[in-house]
Amino acid sequence: MAAKDDVEGINKTTQGSSESFHVGHHFQTSAKDTPEVEEVEHVEKVTWFVLALTSCVCLSGFLFGFDTGVISGALQPIRDEFQLNDVLSELIVGATTLGAIIGGLFAGFLITYPPYLVLRSSWTKGEYRGELDSLYRCSTNGDILLQPITLLSSVVFIVGAIVIAAAPNFGVLIFGRLVVGFGVGLASMIVPVYLSEVAPRTLRGRLTTINVLMITFGQLVSYLINIAFAKTNEGWRYMFGIAAAPALIQLCILPFLPESPRQLVVKGRTEQAAAALTKIYGKSVPESFVQSELSQIEQSIEISKAGTYRELFKSYNRKPLIISCALQAAQQLSGFNCAMYYAATILHMAGFRDNSSSTYFSIVVSATNFLFTFIALTIIDKVGRRRILIYSMVAMIIGLWVLGGAFAGQQGFMTAQDNCNYGTNCARCVQDSVCSWSTSQGMCAITSGLDPTDIFQSSTGCPPQGHDQALTGILFASLIVYVAGYALGLGNVPWLMQSELFPLSVRGKANGIATAVNWSCNLVISTSFLSMTNGVSAAGTFWFYGGLSILFWVFALFEVPEIFRRDSSPIHQRIIPPSSADVELYLAFLLPNVINLVIPSLAY
Questions:
Q1: Residue 150 domain-assigned?
Q2: Sheet harboring 435-438: ordered strands across?
Q3: Are residues 35 and 57 in the same domain?
Q4: Could you write out the DSSP letters of every residue in 34-87?
Q5: Buried b (16+ CB within 10 A) or exposed e, 76-90
Q6: Would residue 593 count as lying in a domain?
Q7: How is 390-441 classified by DSSP, letter by letter?
Q8: Most buried of 60, 338, 551, 587, CB within 10 angstroms?
Q9: ∠ CA 403-62-252 to the nearest 5 degrees?
Q10: Cα dihedral 462, 465, 466, 468 sign
């Protein structure tokens, strides 16, 4: 697709004192839209208060990652204890995602109608009415009291952890997972906003990315906790229950943190907002800088007032919205969260001999995600969003197709069979909870009809064979390549781009829609993975994800623009559409190398 140097169409909207210019693929936000701040030398300094604030708030990100990752090691023990089939197992995994969708919608409702969380028992009837009227007048600005909602998410995490840990039956367990998911939804919506509004302007981007790292770190810690309790009787209860500890710590610290200066300004409490800014930047900050910050906040509030959904769906915002939603869909439909939710299950399918060993090796999967997320966040501004996305998705696609090929070599395309009719396919046999591999018969049969001393089943895996061990190694290596590619690109780029493709006036609304697409696709893949492996085999499932990833890669190659953010001008953004020469360069370099790498792997 050729880039057009001529202007396809310029739409200029003037909103108060802000201007936005939209030129086909090319979009620039004027300095008026997101005004620059005067340079203050010591504002770059990270104070102990800011570090403490960021650490406390990012505990929500940690809990987000922990509660979505812990299910990987806990799922198989839960299945064994409650005798669950694949559909019920998928419900346990998907319940958190469903709860997150509800929690995210609820958080969005509170953003629009904040009074419900700011009532104080000390108010008189007249004070309450005045405060209520004031808050409703501000409701269209997208401003909330962020601190109480963050506190609410901590309480929800604690309640959910306790309910799951004490669950006497499947129904209570599902309810607990829904509660935890509700907390995840609240945290995913509120924490980035809170951090962006309380972090010092010059450190905002760097401190906000800490939340992304904390999510992956939470997943890594959850895998370590899984190992710690893997051989403990009913250890899965401890795996979930331990999440209450960091939530309780956050609950105790949050009341001492400042409210968002933006929220205080929108409520007319400018003196309190100035005090909060002084606390955030340090007492030695000049008064002129504080006043400048207050002015910036007031101007951004005026800009956000003018944004409507009608403006969001106008032609100049429509394509950025499509790009944002497509990237969020790609993030989920590439199947990555299946790798995180079902990591231990996938490794068990791959031939790791028991639940403990598959849980141990899943640590490497999570550590890879954390490491490459850290690498991505350190290089993405230098390399560029589009470039890192294009190359990393190629690594993902290679990983998925080789993963599918290795599963095909190990298990064939055997799907779920009645009466354990898996023949001599031991790898597929032991995945079925009612089946076992009979060493004397050399075939699969129903467990109840076999000698218990003569069988291999799901808890032990298959007898070791040289060829199967080699394929298991290929499976594991390709899974690592897939996870690394995701963490470098799709794990981060969609979130960064959707905050940069839109003018400030509609940015919040666009982010809400794109995030809803993300969670919806997450629900689809998390509640269908086990059913797909039964219906089209493990190989077919990963090739399906690989096929979707190819389609999204082609979309990214032709439609996703490059975005550079200059350190000397952190607010200014320059978007460069893909050119035909750019596309040809990628294809000429990538295709021969990919073919030479993938075809021999699949043939093996």
A1: yes
A2: 443-446, 435-438, 455-456
A3: no
A4: S------GGGGS--HHHHHHHHHHTHHHHHHHHHHHTHHHHHHHHHHHHT--HH
A5: bbbbeeeebebebbb
A6: yes
A7: HHHHHHHHHHHHHHHHHHHHHHTT----GGG--TT-HHHHTTSTTEEEETTT
A8: 60
A9: 165
A10: negative
How many whole angstroms separate alpha carbon 225 and alpha carbon 39?
A: 45
Question: What is the count of structural domains for the chain?
Answer: 3
Phi/psi of residue 216, each to 5°? -70, -35
Per residue in 274-289, pLDDT (tens digit) is 888 888 887 777 888 8
State the Cα torsion 277-279-283-289 to the nearest 10°.
-10
Beta strands 455-456 and 435-438 are antiparallel
For residue 578, the domain's CATH number is: 1.20.1250.20
Whether residues 386 and 292 share a domain: the answer is no
Q: Which of 156, 85, 149 is nearest to 117 (CA)?
A: 149
Same domain (yes/no): 285, 339: no
Which of 332, 430, 340 lies closest to 74 in space, CA to CA?
Answer: 340
What residue type is assigned to position 320 of the chain?
P
One-letter amino acid of 294:
L
Q: Are residues 275 and 391 in the same domain?
A: no
Report if residue 184 sits inside a domain: yes
* 195 CA to centre of own chain: 17
- Residues 326 and 269 both lie in one domain: no
Query: Does residue 105 share a domain with residue 28?
Result: no
Average pLDDT of the residues in 519-545: 91
Compute φ and ψ for 22, nearest 5 degrees: -125, 120
305-347 pLDDT, tens digit each: 666 778 888 888 888 899 999 999 999 999 999 988 888 888 8
Cα–Cα distance measured from residue 91 to residue 96, given in angstroms and rounded to the nearest whole number: 9
Residue 1 in any domain: the answer is no
Which of 22-36, 219-233, 403-417, 589-603 has the weakest average pLDDT? Answer: 22-36
On whether the pTM is more than 0.70, the answer is: yes
Q: What is the DSSP code string of 169-197? A: SHHHHHHHHHHHHHHHHHHHHHHHHHHHH
pLDDT digits (tens, 9 = 90+) for 288-300: 888 888 888 888 7
Do 36 and 131 share a domain, yes or no?
no
| Torsion sign across C-alpha atoms 469, 470, 473, 478 | negative
Range of the domain at 27: 14-44+258-306
